[in-house]
From TrEMBL:
Source organism of this protein record: bioreactor metagenome
The keyword Ion transport belongs to this UniProt entry's keyword annotation: no
Keyword Transmembrane: yes
Record membrane topology: Multi-pass membrane protein
GO cellular component labels: plasma membrane
Name of the featured protein: Major facilitator superfamily (MFS) profile domain-containing protein
Source species taxonomy: unclassified sequences, metagenomes, ecological metagenomes
InterPro entries named among the record's database cross-references: MFS, MFS_dom, MFS_Efflux_Transporters, MFS_trans_sf
Amino acid sequence: MSKTKAWFMAIITILTTVIFAAGLFKVAGTMMFIVGDLGISMTAAGMLMSANGIAATIISIPGSGIMQKIGPRRVVLIALGIIFAGNVAGALTASYGMLLATRFIEGVGFGLMGMAAPPIISALFPPEKRGLPMGIWTLWVSFGSMFILNVSNYVTPNYGWRGNWWLVAVLSVVFFIIFALTVKLPEGDKAAEQAAMEDMDKPKESLGKVLMTPGPWCLAVGFFAFAIANGSYAAFYPMYLQDSLGMDPAAANSVSSIANITMIIGGILTGFVLTRIPNKKHSILYLGVWIIFTLVSVVQFNMPAVGMVIPFMMLYGIICQSIPPILLNLAPEAAATPAMLPIAMGVIMFGQSLGGILTNIICGRFVDIFGSWGALAIPIGICCVIATIAAGFLIPIMKKKYDAAPYGLKRNIATIEKIS
């Protein structure tokens, strides 16, 4: 396969996943209208976001079995069909209960898409060429959020909040056709088969031994707190700007999307920094970033003046997007051996999924109870402080591994990088 053709199909795949992210965050851009139209509380509104995460978590294990049988390409097409059905049903419903049910349907498609995209990109590129396209793909949530928050400024005033549901439904049909006609995986998916054969040759580690390894759990705590803090911003910030600072809906959505732009800058800068700092010092960098992110996250819902919001959004995006690259870069070292990596990654992603599910339930409840957006500093602050402590524990864990077997650990990391 030519390089141009591989990149073309990768771009189509990435754009397709952006539609799923837009479908997830269309609630954030229209929450004020939904609350007013359906007469629901902030806790109930938060559940409209959490429903996606719950459904995506539930479908993860059976979804991987389905993908193993029919392949990632067909899973994407099925996910697009599910997203279409969920958005059409959501646009037609007039009750909160039915709308919540359709969000669960959308969550199934979201979960399937998140699993299927990486194998497709991996199949299109040789191992040494996957880093850049995979790195671009990791920004799909930021791209989707930025897209829908700005587009909804036009759609909602002219077609109501349901117009955003119709938009995602139409886009899902368009990309179903484009994806089906243009994305063709290498025959037999040789890349995936080779990866499977290599996995069979790896020494197996007991589940109990991997689960007793503290490193992955420290990272899982970090991903959980990150999901709480960043998820609160993604779900509630436009409404906070309207409710507390008096912005109109269009301005609130546009200002909130600034962070998504600077997140791209933050991800690229962090990747550059990681290549310049020795691996054994990445845990120290991780702790430093968590200290800064904790301070920023605590004040994000306590802006004293409208004039501070835009500079804050620019800073927040850069700092926020610094955490996932460092965290995931530490995962192979936390796992210690290639054989431990799959289960360790499962532990880490469990933390992220759990945080995604609880974010809107917990934070929406705090706003309802205290009647103030500033109260979100309590759950966000507690989670971030715990994550910072866990990041501190990670430093002696990593130091002990390097001191005990520095050369062996480096060989393991090199092996992981070759097969990833």
